[in-house]
Amino acid sequence: MLHIKCPYCGLRSQNEFSYGGDATVKRPELNKEVSDQDWDNFVYLRKSPKGKHLELWQHISGCRQWIKVERDTLTHEIFKTLKATEEV
Amino acid sequence: MPENFRLDKGGLINRDKKISFKFNGKKYFGYEGDTLASALIANGVHLVGRSFKYHRPRGFFGAGVDEPYAIVQMTRNNEIDPNVRATEQELFEGLEAKSVNCWPNVDFDIGAINNFLGKFFPAGFYYKTFMWPKSFWYKVYEPIIRKAAGFGAASIKHDKEKYEHKYEYCDLLITGSGPSGLASAYAAAQNGAKVILAEDKPRFGGSLLTSEVTIGNKSGKEWSEEMIFNLKSMPNVIVKNRSQVFGYYDHNMLVMSERVSDHLPTTDKYIPKQRLWYIRAKEVVISSGSIERPLVFGNNDTPGVMLSSAAKEYLKVYGVLVGKKPIIFTNNDSGYETALEFKKNKIEPIVLDTRKDTNSEIIKEAKELNINIKFSYVVVAAKGYKKVKSADIARISDDKKSIEKIENIKCDCICVSGFWTPTIHLASQSGNKTKFNEEIDAFIPSQSKQNETTLGSANGVFTLEETLKTSFSKGEELSKKITNKDNKITVPTVVEKKSSNHDKFWCVPLPEGKNYKRFLDFQNDVSVSDIHLALREGYRSIEHVKRYTTLGMATDQGKTSNLNGLQLVSDVENKLVPQVGHTTFRPPYTPVSIGAIVGREIGKHSKPTRKSPMHYWHEKNNAVFVDAGVWLRPRYYKQGNENLFEASKREAKNVRQNVGVCDVTTLGKIDIKGPDSAEFLNRVYTNAWLKLPIGKARYGVMLREDGIVMDDGTTTRISENHYHMTTTTAQAANVLSHLEYYLQLVWPELNVNVVSSTEQWAGAAIAGPKSRNVLQKLFPDLDVSNQGLPFMGYMEGNLFGVNAKIFRISFSGELAYEVNVESDNGNFMWEKIMEIGKEFNIQPYGTEALSTLRIEMGHVAGSELDGRTIPYDNSLEGLVSKKKDFIGKRSLSKKAYIEPDRQKVVGVVPLDKKTSIPEGSYIVKDANAKLPNPKLGHVSASCWSVEYDNPFSLAIIKNGKNMIGQKLFALSPLKNKTIPVEIVSSHYVDPKGERVRS
User: Fold this and answer.
1) Element (H or E) spanning B194, and its range?
2) Choosing among B683, B706, B890, which should be mutated to test the A contact, i.e. which has the most A CBs within 10 A?
3) How close, in Å, is residue A83 to chain B by CA atoms?
4) Is it the case that residue B30 has pLDDT exceeding 90?
5) Are residues B777 and B757 in contact, defined by beta-carbon separation less than 8 angstroms?
6) C-alpha distances out from residue B282 to A70, B179, B195, B358, B614, Å
């Protein structure tokens, strides 16, 4: 079970969090033309990298903040955790 | 009187306390401190079970976790415990156990015929034999295999025992209390580290309990006792026996199973049977020791053939002789320790050493004691069926390829020692890249992935002096990193015997003309010839060989078989063992009971139960409850002998005719505040929200980004920047996360806060033509007329001294109101409503009537908003704004979503107006079409319309828009029903929606 350092609450066990997928996906802006391809990329297409992955987790049984976690998908090593608004 | 194999003195058992127990119905005696295995051996019992495939007689092979044979079914505390290892089960007064995998009994087992049909059961025989004819699989093969497979039988009754989970954090977790575990634990504890020392056996000390060594001026055993005494007295140390660390997971999380009460006849009140520890350790020391490797020869599974180290343990710990005419068959010096122990107890062993005449300290000692040693000798085959009676032995050539003339010598046990296999399971589980050590012919840990260090014989170090030196210093080093303290410990002087090199020989060739079974995996009956066959058939990867032959796959997980299997594959393939590699070690190291894994999360504790503040009123008034997510909701209120159907019809009818009240506390409620709330709602919902006036509610639909409907509900503008959102019961948590996601990540510039207020409010829906009369009496000071409080209006009121929020919203399609009060006042509100509503014939209604009312009104709910439908499918397209953008809007222009024959919700009525349509039925054009009958859609919800007194269903069908009036069929293959139906509008009752506005 992972040990995730919430930027607000500190080191907490994985079972307090829920997984939220790729954190690098940017939602297209509202009221802007989006091509079918771009929209499909945003909604469906995700990379599944072996190695470093920046992903979202929500501290659902804690502070309820969405956070960014840089994790190795192969070794499960967590390199860093960030607040939602912070960039790597 | 059975022969007694107990020595007059010696061992660590308590001879003052005699214990009686039963095995296979027969009564025996043992002593406190015995295991079931040691007590049975003391009574001369060596036949404990039958093997898995061939049903060959099996006895004891080991003395601990590595035991592959002696698995028994036990009754303890009136509960059945299947698959208990007799070598680990401590004896208690009244213990009852029996053999498994045999019928009718262990002495006469019909399945043993498999032994003679052996050639029909080669490796992979399941795959080969049961492939044809295909139809035989379900009817013939599968039931027979089921009956024949497996060991113990689990109880089908509820297990009344208690199991617990515990969470612990520590600086150092040390797995095993042998010399390396004790030394590292002591050093770390002296540095002030928080230490957990876990020992799987009841007694601490590991190999020190049975080895002839001196540490300082003490024997190994005395030294271990002193260390444990010291550790137990330190406040920063937790010392646990009967505790197996069985799994090493990510981020240095380990799981340990503690057998708290298994050694006692009953489980004390407030004490669990077993406890599962989740331990997060900063550093882990793996001091799990090593397990002796078998030597492979003909019939090496005969009861009486066992590990030499086990024979020594039975002697030294339990004072029990495994035999009185022992043969020690060894390829290294360890076998001599057992021989000396026999000799000390006046038993004359014969030692067969595969090596040429060598001299080491211990061999010299054996020679001086005139022990009969035959060098360059091997056991070719064990003789005897239910117990070893003699052994065929022979001199082996120097190249170990051929054997000379066979002699037969009498014996009653054969103790084998094929050198040692480090127990690297935990290290490997942690991600350690293990490496092969040529010197010891075994894998040892190499490069760590997590904070883990392996010490002692688990690391391939077999001298005590080296073990203590490295363990003390590792304990210091690891703890220093954490505590910054640096206490140096003087390593005591060690006296031990120096060993000579072991022989790499391990598998005795078959004598000409003989085809003895030579077993590698004892529990799964995998023999040398099975591996040969698998390789001949083209299996190369060790992982494939394992699965095809089942080598190492049994409950002992190959503790005694893995390395010999690898050696054999590497011999046949002419590869080096490291090229063959080993199979992956996975948790658990030893079997863990399901009870321990589940812990206390059973029955009502498996998930939270949420009850509304009115729950006890419902209970008192004969409510029958239904699970709605984690909530308990009244399904109907039973009157007299009513069943569900009758009660729900009565309740729904009363809503249509008079007035009903329904507990809607469970609806999700989210409080939304902030100056950008309107803008936020406008982006979240498909319809327009910017112009909603204060004091008004609006129905809204929200989508996921892929255009699928996520949830629906009403949101009310309480004040300028304050909104009250409701969600469905099921989606409440998801919707909150969804809103938080957009506010925190996508539009952090919006100044809005959301918080769940579901539990803060108790809600009652008052519905029916007379609901306004009830409301007026509840709030006499308010103008609740159609003008004063119009449809979708909101006001606040005072309900007999209690603050209330009143929403004029309706799910039933009738004139209706929802009244919310603070949760603590919920029951007060409910009782007032019932009291005041009496004169208007108010009745409470449950979820079943609620469903009926919404279905016949054509209001979509969870069964239509099923994660596969878009607004159009639910006839909600009118709520989708064309002007503004919102979450998921872009997806709605996908090609599949705008096809002219896109699915849509419709009503379905059976032509006979009598037959209810099962939910999930298919709608088809032609009931007799060839299968698979092309389906137009499915029935999502069914009810008995109280308005028309006939069955009515909702269905989502292809081209639903143009299907009204068509005569089709509802098909339920599950219930074997074909029902002719007519498609009608989904708005079956009050299609113009006049009642809600009346």
Assistant:
1) none
2) B890
3) 9
4) yes
5) no
6) 21, 22, 10, 46, 48
Give the Cβ contact number of residue B30 at 10 Å: 28
Q: Which chain B residue shows the shortest CA-CA distance from A5?
A: B251
**What confidence tier does B603 reach under pLDDT thresholds 50, 70, 90?**
confident
Give burial (CB, 10 Å; 0-12/13-18/19+) of B113.
exposed
Q: How far apart are CA B174 and CA B882, in angstroms?
A: 66
Which residues, listed in sequence order, are joined to residue B197 by a DSSP beta bridge?
B174, B239
Q: Token pair for residue B654?
A: 């009363």
Section B504-514 average pLDDT = 93
Q: What's the pTM value of the predicted model, to 2 decimals?
A: 0.89
Residue A1 to residue B250, Cβ atoms within 8 A: yes
Give the pairing type, strands B163-175 and B274-286.
parallel
Cross-chain residue pair A1–B278, CB shorter than 8 Å: yes
How large is the average pLDDT for residues B920-947? 95
Amino acid at A66: W
φ, ψ dihedrals at B895, nearest 5°: -55, -45
Q: Are strands B274-286 and B452-454 parallel, antiparallel or unpaired?
A: parallel
Q: Could you give the domains of chain B?
A: 1-157 (3.10.20.440), 163-290+422-495 (3.50.50.60), 294-418 (3.50.50.60), 509-599 (1.10.10.1100), 898-998 (2.40.30.110)
Rounded to whole angstroms, the Cα distance separating B2 from B4 reads 6
Domains of chain A by range and CATH?
3-24+36-83 (3.30.2270.10)
* B253 vs A contacts (CB less than 8 Å): 1, 3
- The residue written with tokens 């006049």 in the block is B994
Predicted pLDDT at B451: 95
Let me know if B737 is exposed, middle or buried by CB neighbors in 10 A (0-12, 13-18, 19+): middle
Interfacial A residues in 23-82 facing B (CB < 8 Å): 27-28, 30-31, 34, 39, 42-44, 56, 58, 60, 64-66, 75-76, 78
- Which burial class, exposed, middle or buried, applies to B900 when counting CB atoms under 10 A from its CB (0-12, 13-18, 19+)? exposed
